[in-house]
């Protein structure tokens, strides 16, 4: 069975303050090297914090 192109590039985003996984997103591994880091809203911290790419 063939893999879906949407599921193989999924990465989880973890809050750097409370360490909870809040978001998942796709990442193009051919054009983007290194870890992904975005500023997103964390509902447990109730603030906009940095969310870094988590391990699988």
How is this structure best described in words?
A 4-stranded antiparallel sheet has the order 2-1-4-3, with no helix packed on it. It has a domain at 10-26 and 35-53. The protein has strands at residues 10-15, 21-26, 37-42, 47-53. The protein is built from no helices and 4 strands. The chain has 56 residues and is an all-beta fold.
Write the layout of secondary structure elements.
Blueprint lengths: L9 E6 L5 E6 L10 E6 L4 E7 L3
Concise summary:
This protein has 56 residues and is an all-beta fold. The chain has strands spanning 10-15, 21-26, 37-42, 47-53.
Largest sheet: 4 strands, antiparallel
End-to-end gap: 22 Å
**In order across it, which strands form the biggest sheet?**
2-1-4-3
Query: What would you call the structural class?
Result: mainly beta
Task: List unreliable stretches of 5+ residues.
Answer: none
- DSSP summary, beta strand count: 4
Q: Globular, elongated, flat, extended or rod-shaped: what is the shape?
A: elongated
Kindly report the average pLDDT value. Answer: 87
Salient structural properties:
mainly beta, 4 strands, elongated, 56 residues, 4-stranded antiparallel β-sheet
């Amino acid at each position: 069975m063939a893999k879906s192109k949407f599921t193989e590039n999924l990465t989880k985003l973890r809050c750097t303050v409370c360490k909870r996984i809040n978001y998942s997103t796709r990442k193009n591994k051919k054009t983007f090297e290194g870890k992904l880091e975005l500023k997103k809203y964390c509902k447990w911290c109730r603030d906009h914090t940095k969310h870094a790419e988590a391990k699988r």
